[in-house]
């Protein structure tokens, strides 16, 4: 009888020990889960804060780029550039033109890349809408033109076309602004885009760059 009681007591002790061990594992797992969750939350918060800081820095950099003058750019008095809609030929004082009277219909400038020369009077209308017009002549290296075409292709309110008679190999024009460069990776190209694509020089901000004249 005593032996049976001893066995029962021993069995109960083992069961109690197993329960304590199980409870201990549950507590450890709980603490571990809390720790992992806390680490994940902290990581997400930290990542979110980093993204926010990075975004703020980009905004500051872009704001600074918009304010800083673009080295080597030419500027014309926007108030002296005509803005009449005409359907007769217009003689511009600069090539490519950066403003002046122009055709009522604009060139499509939603990242449009034109293989052939386009009418100046239509391109000037695109500049009035806030577009940057990238042009090149035969002096420009094909690889550089391809890089510019890729940049234009992913940038709304831009267009690219050849202009055989222009003085510089590569030229960027906005309303009243113009820059000449030799290479597509010249840092002034990105600065010109940042500053003048729908920039403060735009006579008609927000006007369309689609549903205009396209390449035939």
Automatic annotation (TrEMBL):
Compositionally skewed regions (Low complexity) per UniProt? 1-13
Q: Could you confirm whether the keyword Transmembrane helix appears in this record?
A: yes
Identify the stretch annotated as signal peptide in this record. Answer: none
The annotated region (Disordered) lies at: 1-26
Q: One Pfam match, by short name?
A: DUF3105
InterPro entries given in the database record? DUF3105 (IPR021454)
Could you tell me the superkingdom of the organism this chain comes from? Bacteria
Where are its TM segments located? 31-53
Q: Where is the composition biased (Basic and acidic residues)?
A: 14-26
Q: Tell me which UniProt keywords the record has, alphabetically.
A: Membrane, Transmembrane, Transmembrane helix
**What name does the UniProt record give this protein?**
DUF3105 domain-containing protein
